[in-house]
Amino acid sequence: MELTSTGQLYRIVTSTEDARAKAMAWHTHFSGLSGRLTPADQSRIARWMDTTTRSVRRQWAAWNENGRDPAALIDRRLSPDRSSSPMTSEFIEFWKSLCEENARSSAAAYRALRALWRSGKPIPGVSPELRRSPTLPRGFSRSNLYRHLPTKFALRSSRVGRQSAAAYRPLVSTTRVGMEVGTEIMFDDMWHDFQVVVLGQRKPSRLLQLHAHDVFSACQFARGIKPRVEDPETGRSVQLDQGDMLFLTAHCLGAYGYNPSGTRLMLESGTAALPREIAESLERISGGKVVVVTAPIQNRSAFAGQYLGSGKGNFRFKSHLESSHSLIHAETANMLEFAGQTGSNSRINAPEQLHGRAVALNVLTRAMAALPPELVSELRLPFVEATKAIWAIEAVMERINGRTDHDLEGWVEAGLTALEYDLPGGLRVPALQVAALDPDRRAAIEAVAQPSVRKLSPREVFEAGRRKLVRFRPEQAAALLVNAQGREVVVGHNHMITVEDKSLSPSPIRYLAHTLAPGDAFRCVINPFELENCHLFDARERWVGTLRAWQAVSRIDQDGIRAQIAEASEIHNLLLKPIADRGARQAAKRLEDLQVNIEKLSGHLQSETDLGAAADAALQNLL
Questions:
Q1: Residue 451: pLDDT above 80?
Q2: What pLDDT score does 8 carry?
């Protein structure tokens, strides 16, 4: 077959006769096809060329990719220069740079290389002899070039950025072995993937959660949940902020405490963050035992000259929390219990019926304004009411904290297991209870029981370890909240302070203030994570004390009612004591008047006995 292309002729004559003849044989077989390589064609050509159908498909692809150039079919193993590759190290680096410059695919980089080759422009590392061919030589096929692709680390670094490429390098591994409860506490916020209805709000809202997670026990031991609502005055959304984080931190250290060996509070740089002065106060109050560690902001470039990205934290800093978030979302994905699911990414997988639910809620909300209250309370809304949803989430979280069928890292190595005895009938008894029995009963149980080992739940590990924690005293917790936003309150005539705030509680909250004088004014700071207490500060921002909530008792809780009656009686007597002290002069005056009257009337009495009886009776009436 006559070759008219200078490049083709050059490539053919520089090969050995055997290589040229074999390439022409391939070219002849492929030229006789109608443009499509069928399985029958593959088998026929494989028999003629004494090779496999796989080799036939590979040669067919190389022939088509290089413009049906027979030079692309030369077997380099039969060429004199088969020991040397036409790709130089300089060209390979150039090829990698093409791939890294394309932000999406290396296939586009290959097409760019072919266009550059046809343009005749110089290419780094390619000799003039190779450029005589108008098409890419055989050694520059896509399959061969793909063998020299940049690594995934290099591609991700150039296309996305330095931080994104971290997944393709060795990462630091850590274990919980050797830790204790309270050694590390991670804080984070999350959005729940379903909407709720909030009283007073016409639009459905999503719930926001801020929580604390003990790394050793994997127990989410403290959390706060509130709906994302609109401020009626400003129209802006009310979301979580650093004030909520401050309250959660004060609650964790005041109600649970820190590890005496040291506690690291692992925070991010967004919502779950603390001001520097608060971090310094925590370290000072705890004597250096509580240290705040904030995830660093990463925005370094992968190479000099690359523009910097926006600063963001490292999600691996709180990997324990990120994995637990997926579990929480999965456990709250029941569309009956948690209606109004939004999907994990509303742009991609939001349920189509979410729109219809919002429309139905709007219709019902308009109708409720004209309905009597007793009928409104019986309506069934297309979304769960916020308070009910929060209680349902609390139940889900405790189920997660109580699970034993988990696969948490380092659990068995840390010895977080329990020995139990399986008794007939499905009863399980902890080994410690069996060990506490008398020898005869213990022997009887061990004779019929089957010992087994199970993993402890996160809640069991946390509750066992929290006894060692050191809690902040009330005045220490108050020192963290002294600059928090408070409210002016006045002690009422009923010796109580009443706070009405819908963001804290649907009903007014009353706090006992019988040790204070009615009319006294203070600044009150209430931690939404601890509604049972409130801190009072004077005009000079000095801590006055902590008041305890005086909440309503359920009418079915008879023991609680009796306890509160007894406490109310005790407070009543305490309030009467200063009155009795101040009334001592009145009592003395009355006794003096009684004595005078008795003496004046003594002449009318018949005997001294009658006088004594009258005096006793008078004194008895006085007392």
A1: yes
A2: 45
CA atoms within 13 A on the CB side of 314: 17
Neighbours of 387 (CB within 10 A): 15
One DSSP character per residue, 578-622 reads HHHHHTHHHHHHHHHHHHHHHHHTGGGSSSHHHHHHHHHHHHHHH
Taking residues 13-20, report their average pLDDT.
62
Phi-psi domain of 125 (left: phi exceeds 0; alpha: psi -120 through 50; beta: other): left
> Do the beta carbons of residue 455 and residue 412 sit within 8 Å?
yes
For residues 230-260, one letter each, b for 16 or more C-beta atoms within 10 angstroms of the residue's C-beta and e for the rest, the string is: beeeeeeeeebeeebbbbbbbbbbbbbbbbe
CB 195 within 8 A of CB 229: no
512: Cβ–Cβ under 8 A, 6 or more apart, which residues? 495, 496, 547, 548, 549, 550, 571
Structure tokens at 76: 């380099």
Give phi and psi for 37, each to the nearest 5: -95, 100
Q: How far apart are CA 402 and CA 218, in angstroms?
A: 11
Type and span of the H or E element at 266: strand 263-267
Whether 257 and 467 have beta carbons less than 8 Å apart is answered as no
Spell out a b/e string for 605-620, using b for 16 or more CB atoms within 10 Å of the CB, else e.
eeeeeebeeeeeeeee
At 545-563, the pLDDT tens digits run 888 888 777 778 788 778 8
- In 3D, which of 179, 187, 231, 229 has the Cα closest to residue 208? 229
Those residues with Cβ within 8 angstroms of residue 549's Cβ, 6 or more apart along the chain or in another chain? 509, 510, 511, 512, 531, 532, 533, 534
Q: How far is CA 575 from CA 137, 513, 515, in A?
A: 103, 11, 9
Q: What is the CA radius of gyration of the chain?
A: 41
Beta carbons within 10 angstroms of residue 279's beta carbon: 19
Measured CA distances, 597 to 94, 104, 591, 594, 622 (Å): 123, 111, 10, 5, 14
Beta-bridge mates of residue 117: none
Distance between CA atoms of residues 325 and 369, nearest Å = 38
**Calpha distance 165→157 (Å, rounded):** 5
Q: Tell me how crowded residue 130 is: count the other CB atoms within 10 A of its CB.
A: 20
CA distance 316 to 312: 12
290-294 and 263-267 strand pairing: parallel
Contacting residues for 607 by C-beta, under 8 A, at least 6 apart = none
CA distances from 612 to 337, 373, 594, 615 (A): 80, 70, 13, 5
Q: 537: part of which helix (H) or strand (E)?
A: strand 533-537
Contacts of 256 (CB under 8 A, 6+ apart): 182, 221, 222, 466, 469, 471
**pTM score:** 0.68
Q: Is 345 helix (H, G, I), strand (E, B) or coil?
A: coil
What does the alpha-carbon distance between residue 469 and residue 185 come to, in Å, rounded to a whole number? 13
CATH (residue range 184-299+315-401): 3.30.420.10
Q: What percent of the chain is predicted at pLDDT more than 90? A: 21
Per-domain residue ranges of the chain: 6-78, 89-168, 184-299+315-401, 417-455, 485-548, 583-622
Domains 184-299+315-401 and 485-548 share a fold: no
Residues paired with 534 in a beta bridge: 547
Q: What tens digit of pLDDT does each residue of 556-608 get?
A: 878 877 887 887 787 777 777 777 777 777 777 777 777 877 777 766 655 55
Exposed e or buried b for every residue in 322-341, given b needs 16+ CB within 10 A? Answer: eebeeebbebbeeeeebbbb
> What CATH architecture applies to the domain 485-548?
Roll (2.30)
